[in-house]
User: Which sequence fits this backbone?
RNA sequence: GGCCCUAUCGUCUAACGGUUAGGACAUCGGCUUUUCAAGCCGGUAAUCGGGGUCCGAUUCCCCGUAGGGUCACCA
C-alpha cells in the first residue's frame, strides 16, 4: 500500500481564518493517522497578490496549532518544472498558445496558453460526497498559463501534486468545480489521479463563506487573544465532523484521540456556522484542566504590562481560582488588572492596591450610612481576635452577627469596604486573600467617618 | 441564469428503517447568594414541503422549495 501523502496548500495573499486551518487540520490528522506525510506548500503563483506577511502568518498559525509539516515547498521555486510540462503539453498538442486580447486591457494582444479540452464528462468519487459528475464542455479551452513562464493555479497544482506524490487532495468545497479541470490535466499527462475529499465550508453567521470582511478573526488572532491552541483545535475540528461513538456525548478530544478517530465517513456534508461562544466554552473547559504551572505560564505574557506583573507569584496564586472561574481567554488578564502605565483600570485591582471607597456606596438598600459604619465597626471588632484567618474562619466570625442584623446590612458594607466596588466576589473570599492586616485596615479606613 | 453540492432545535451535532428524535452551546426559569461571576436543577426549541418504496421512514428514491458553491489570465 502506497504511503498516504496529504498537503495543505494556502496562497499567501492574506491572513487565513478558521476555515482554512480546519482543512489543514483534517489533512494533517489523516496523514498522521495513516502514518503518511503532510506537506505544506505555499502557492505563490499570483505574483501580484503575494505578500511576505501573509506567509509568516501561515507558518505562525500552523506552528501554534501543532500542525508540523514533513516537507515544505514553495510553488514559485518549481517554475522550471511547470514550464517543462507546459512545453510538453504544447508539443503534444494538448495545449496551445492563443493570441488574444489581454484580460485587463482588451486593446493589447497577448499570448496565453490554453488547454485543449477534450470536452468529456468527468465523474470522480469524492471521499465525502460520493460520485460527482460534471460535463467539462462548459469549461471550454481553459487558460493554464498567462505565459510560458507564468503558470496559472490549475497547472501548478497538478504538477506539484503529482511530483510530490500527493495521494489525497483534501481541500474546501469551493474547489469541486475545479476538480474536473485537474482530472483532465492529469489524464492528458498520463498521471495517476489522486483521491479527492472536498470539505464543507465554514460559514459566518450570515451563512456565507467565512471571510475577513465578515469579521472572521485570523487564526493568529486567537493565539494573540490567549486562546489555548488545543481548545481551538478541538472546537474547529468538531465543526462538520464528529468522532463520537453513537450515543456518546463526549465533546472534548485530545489531538491523539482525534488522530485515532478521524474518518471521512463521519464528515458532515453541509456547511457549518462558526460561533465564537462555543469556542469560548471549549476554551474555558481547557483552562479548567490546566495545571497551576501551565496556567501561570500562559498568563505571564498578558500580566507583564499590568500592575500584577510585578507582584509576588504567591499573592497571585491566591487569586488563581477566582481568575479561572471568571476568564474565558488569557488576554482577559488585561481586564482584571490595571495597566502598569495607568492607562486602564482592572476589575481586580483592589486585590493589589487599596481602593478608594465611595462612602455613598457603603450603605445597603434602605439603610443609612450611619448604620453601615456601625456595622463595619462591629465587624472589625469580631475579626480582631480571630485566629483562623481563612475564608471559613472569617465567615464563621461574621456570619452570626450578619444573620441577626440582616445579612445585606452587614455584608454589603463589609464587601464594599474591601473592594470599593458594587460587584465583586464575596467579602470572605476577599478577606482571606487580603489577609488580616490589610482587611482590618480597609474596614477601619472605611469606618473612619464615624469618629 | 447554467452547472455542482447540501438540507435534524437559533447554532454545532447524535440517532445499522423501528427512540417519548438524544447531547452540547446559546436562551429562559428556579435554587444558592449581600452583589457579580461560577455552580446545581429544570423549561422552551428541530427532522423544509409533497409524493413514493416499506408492516414501519429523520434515515432509501423522485419532484419541488430553500440555502450554499462555482462559472477568472485568484488560488
Assistant:
Amino acid at each position: 500500500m502506497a504511503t498516504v501523502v496529504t498537503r495543505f496548500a494556502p496562497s499567501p495573499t492574506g491572513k487565513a481564518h478558521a476555515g482554512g486551518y480546519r482543512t489543514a487540520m483534517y489533512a494533517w490528522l489523516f496523514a498522521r493517522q495513516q502514518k503518511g506525510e503532510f506537506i505544506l506548500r505555499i502557492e505563490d503563483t499570483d505574483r501580484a497578490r503575494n505578500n511576505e506577511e501573509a506567509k509568516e502568518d501561515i507558518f505562525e498559525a500552523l506552528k501554534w496549532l501543532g500542525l508540523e509539516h514533513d516537507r515544505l515547498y514553495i510553488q514559485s521555486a518549481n517554475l522550471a518544472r511547470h514550464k517543462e510540462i507546459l512545453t510538453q503539453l504544447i508539443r503534444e498538442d494538448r495545449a496551445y498558445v492563443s493570441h488574444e486580447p489581454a484580460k485587463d486591457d482588451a486593446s493589447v494582444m497577448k499570448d496565453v496558453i490554453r488547454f485543449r479540452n477534450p470536452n468529456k464528462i468527468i465523474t470522480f468519487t469524492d471521499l465525502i460526497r460520493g460520485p460527482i459528475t460534471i460535463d467539462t464542455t462548459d469549461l471550454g479551452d481553459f487558460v493554464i498559463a498567462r505565459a510560458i513562464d507564468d503558470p496559472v493555479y490549475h497547472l501548478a497544482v497538478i504538477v506539484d501534486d503529482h511530483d510530490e506524490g500527493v495521494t489525497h487532495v483534501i481541500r474546501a468545497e469551493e474547489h469541486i468545480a475545479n476538480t474536473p479541470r485537474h482530472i483532465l490535466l492529469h489524464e492528458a499527462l498520463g498521471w495517476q489521479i489522486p483521491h479527492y475529499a472536498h470539505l464543507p465550508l465554514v460559514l459566518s453567521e450570515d451563512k456565507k463563506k467565512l471571510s475577513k470582511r465578515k469579521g472572521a478573526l485570523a487564526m493568529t488572532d486567537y493565539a494573540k487573544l490567549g486562546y489555548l491552541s488545543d481548545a481551538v483545535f478541538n472546537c474547529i475540528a468538531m465543526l462538520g465532523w464528529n468522532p463520537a461513538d453513537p450515543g456518546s456525548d463526549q465533546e472534548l478530544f485530545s489531538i491523539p484521540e482525534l488522530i485515532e478517530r478521524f474518518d471521512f465517513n463521519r464528515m458532515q456534508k453541509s456547511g457549518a456556522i462558526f460561533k465564537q461562544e462555543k469556542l469560548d466554552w471549549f476554551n474555558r473547559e481547557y483552562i479548567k484542566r490546566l495545571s497551576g504551572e501551565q496556567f501561570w505560564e500562559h498568563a505571564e505574557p498578558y500580566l507583564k504590562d499590568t500592575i500584577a506583573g510585578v507582584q509576588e507569584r504567591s499573592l497571585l496564586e491566591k487569586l488563581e481560582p477566582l481568575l479561572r472561574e471568571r476568564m474565558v481567554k488569557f488576554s482577559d488578564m488585561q481586564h482584571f488588572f490595571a495597566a502598569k502605565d495607568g492607562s486602564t483600570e482592572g476589575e481586580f485591582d483592589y486585590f493589589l492596591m487599596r481602593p478608594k471607597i465611595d462612602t455613598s456606596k457603603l450603605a445597603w438598600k434602605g439603610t443609612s450610612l450611619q448604620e453601615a459604619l456601625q456595622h463595619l465597626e462591629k465587624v472589625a471588632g469580631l475579626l480582631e481576635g480571630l485566629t483562623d484567618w481563612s475564608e471559613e474562619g472569617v465567615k464563621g466570625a461574621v456570619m452570626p452577627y450578619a444573620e441577626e442584623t440582616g445579612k445585606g446590612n452587614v455584608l454589603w458594607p463589609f464587601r464594599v469596604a474591601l473592594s470599593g466596588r458594587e460587584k465583586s466576589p464575596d467579602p470572605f473570599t476577599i478577606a482571606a486573600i487580603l489577609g488580616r492586616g490589610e482587611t482590618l485596615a480597609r474596614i477601619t479606613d472605611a469606618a473612619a467617618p464615624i469618629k
Q: What stands out?
A: Chain A has a mean pLDDT of 93.
